[in-house]
């Protein structure tokens, strides 16, 4: 049982004012995992008030060296308690031990160093050349200043990574934060808040964590008049609601939303190896990744070979108990999510050819498992090629030539990511340049790094996380004119 049932408000661990809690099941066993504090509107108001007070008081936003110090303390503390963090994260997400090491835990803690350094090294003030304005000669500086109170709203699939990227970026830039994690994964966030409270010098109110079973608490944050910026990761449909709600106070709004990315395998690629790997990637974390390339586009001239390679990979993909290091895929997050994925698989049966999988796991009586599933002969306009499924469902689509591949890849409301594989990096680069997406990997040279901007074109989002653009999204711009010396 996880024992993390408090909110973190104004530097204190507190119960929800109503005394209410909510529980979640372990997705791998369906057993009760613990209880979390179920914040209501008064708790959210208290968290925002604490963040507002601490920001307006001014000392935090004026001291980049102290902010870097606190973030480095946080990194050290997370490293010291890494096994506790991993245990909570695996228990609440169903993520496998292997994926926790590869993506969910170690690298994201290491990445804190980048923003901590940036807090200190970033040039917050820059001079423009002297000029003559309508009022005469002027010198000018352009200052970047923290925006104020940041509301961070996160989904359940990568809780530590997404909570940390938002919280550490916002804090490094001098803001104060209220974090509202997904109801399915309250404990990674609550533990992060507790570690920040117990093991760092972060002043009270700088970082608050509000867990709740009620999505309305997220909505309240987006409409709150004392919140200056919303950084949101989640589905595109919720992103639209966030944007509409934030409009009432003209809040700065950054959205990291859904995707339906394409993996384009050109006809000169090592097709067997590349298609197998592309199919396996979709099944990592049971397909619950926004940037996964869930449509594999293969040359019609080598279609049968490609389908055989995809089938071999999907049939062999190791899944089951997240704690078994051999497994690369665990359960889906919840019964609701499994039902949604199975509904999509049923849609797919009428749209395309099901090659393997397509049901609950026959090997598991408990846990929200779905078999790795492969559809081929998928039409680019089919629902399973257009809508985000968020499950271990691989789709294979044939294309005629490079132009056709680009057209199919770009035939989407989304534009988050993509992969291009070819025997010629130059040819792959030409295709990558034409993709309407925020990131592209060529021949599996991945882009994910703390200094790589990440985000979406089209309905995959607004703005960027990570890198200098991500850091600057937490800063306002002020231009000051003054008389030349
Ligand atoms: P979701 O949109 O259902 O929920 C995300 C968060 O928003 C949760 O904390 C939820 O409580 C909150 N929320 C719900 N309604 C709200 C409202 N009206 N106003 C404010 N907040 C509200 O998403 P999910 O199901 O938790 O996560 C899966 C989705 O997240 C997928 O679509 C996936 O693609 C997306 N995602 C995107 C990225 C990215 O960086 N682009 C990363 C991970 C996940």
Characterise the protein shown here.
Its EC number is 1.2.1.-. It comes from Frankia alni (strain DSM 45986 / CECT 9034 / ACN14a). Belongs to the aldehyde dehydrogenase family. By secondary structure, this protein is of the alpha/beta class. The protein has two domains: 4-257 and 460-482, Aldehyde Dehydrogenase, Chain A, domain 1 (3-Layer(aba) Sandwich), CATH 3.40.605; 262-442, Aldehyde Dehydrogenase, Chain A, domain 2. The chain has 17 helices and 23 strands. The chain has helices at residues 41-57, 64-80, 82-93, 97-104, 106-110, 112-121, 159-172, 186-199, 215-223, 236-247, 271-283, 303-316, 335-351, 383-386, 402-410, 425-434, 467-472, and strands at residues 2-3, 7-9, 12-14, 21-25, 32-37, 125-133, 136-146, 149-153, 176-180, 207-209, 229-233, 252-256, 262-265, 295-299, 353-356, 373-376, 393-399, 414-415, 418-421, 441-442, 457-458, 461-462, 475-482. Helix 8 links the parallel strand 9 and strand 10. The termini are far apart. It binds nicotinamide-adenine-dinucleotide. Nicotinamide-adenine-dinucleotide binds next to helix 9 and helix 10. Residues 153-158, 180-183, 215, 218-219, 222, 233-235, 238, 241-242, 256-259, 290, 388, 390, 416, 456, 461 line the site of nicotinamide-adenine-dinucleotide.
The residue fraction in helices comes out at: 25-40%
Low-pLDDT windows of residues: none
Total strand segments: 23
Largest sheet: 7 strands, mixed
Question: Which small compounds were modeled alongside the protein?
Answer: nicotinamide-adenine-dinucleotide
**Percent range for β-strand residues:** 15-25%
Structural class designation: alpha/beta
């Amino acid at each position: 049982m996880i024992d993390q049932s408090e909110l973190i408000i104004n530097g204190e661990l507190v119960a929800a004012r109503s005394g209410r809690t909510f529980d979640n099941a372990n997705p791998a066993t369906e057993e009760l995992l613990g209880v979390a504090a179920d914040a209501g509107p008064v708790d959210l108001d208290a968290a925002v008030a604490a963040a507002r007070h601490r920001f307006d008081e001014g000392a935090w936003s004026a001291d980049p060296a102290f902010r870097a110090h606190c973030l480095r303390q946080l990194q050290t503390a997370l490293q010291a308690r890494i096994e506790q963090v991993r245990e909570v994260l695996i228990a609440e997400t169903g993520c496998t031990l292997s994926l926790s090491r590869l993506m969910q835990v170690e690298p994201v803690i290491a990445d804190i160093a980048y923003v901590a350094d940036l807090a200190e090294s970033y040039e917050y003030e820059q001079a423009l050349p002297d000029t003559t304005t309508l009022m005469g000669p002027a010198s000018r500086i352009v200052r970047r200043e923290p925006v104020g109170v940041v509301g961070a709203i996160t989904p359940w699939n990568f809780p530590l990574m997404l909570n940390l990227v938002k919280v550490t970026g916002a804090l490094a830039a001098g803001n104060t934060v209220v974090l509202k994690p997904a109801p399915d994964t309250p404990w990674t966030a609550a533990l992060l808040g507790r570690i920040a409270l117990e093991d760092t010098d972060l002043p009270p109110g700088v970082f608050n964590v509000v867990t709740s079973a009620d999505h309305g608490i997220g909505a309240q944050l987006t409409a709150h008049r004392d919140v200056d910026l919303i950084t949101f990761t989640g589905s595109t449909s919720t992103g639209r609601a966030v944007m509409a709600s934030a409009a009432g106070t003209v809040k700065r709004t950054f959205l990291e939303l859904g995707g339906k990315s394409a993996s384009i395998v050109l006809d000169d690629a090592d097709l067997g190896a590349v298609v197998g790997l592309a199919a396996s990637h979709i099944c990592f974390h049971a397909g619950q990744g926004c940037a996964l390339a869930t449509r594999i586009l293969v040359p019609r001239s080598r279609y049968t070979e490609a389908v055989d390679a995809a089938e071999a990979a999907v049939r062999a993909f190791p899944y089951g108990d997240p704690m078994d290091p051999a497994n690369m895929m665990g359960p889906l997050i919840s019964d609701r999510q499994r039902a949604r994925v199975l509904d999509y698989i049923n849609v797919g049966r009428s749209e395309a050819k099901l090659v393997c999988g397509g049901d609950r796991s026959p090997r598991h009586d408990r846990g929200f498992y779905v078999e790795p599933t492969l559809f081929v002969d998928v039409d680019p306009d089919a629902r399973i090629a257009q809508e985000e499924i968020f499950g271990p469902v691989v789709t294979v689509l044939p294309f005629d030539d490079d132009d056709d591949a680009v057209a199919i890849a770009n035939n989407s409301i989304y534009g988050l990511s993509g992969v291009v594989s070819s025997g010629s990096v130059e040819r792959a680069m030409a295709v990558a340049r034409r993709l309407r997406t925020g990131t592209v990997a060529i021949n599996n040279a991945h882009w994910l790094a703390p200094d790589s901007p990440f985000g979406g074109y089209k309905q995959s989002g607004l703005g960027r996380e990570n890198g200098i653009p991500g850091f600057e999204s937490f800063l306002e711009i002020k231009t000051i004119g003054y008389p030349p010396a």
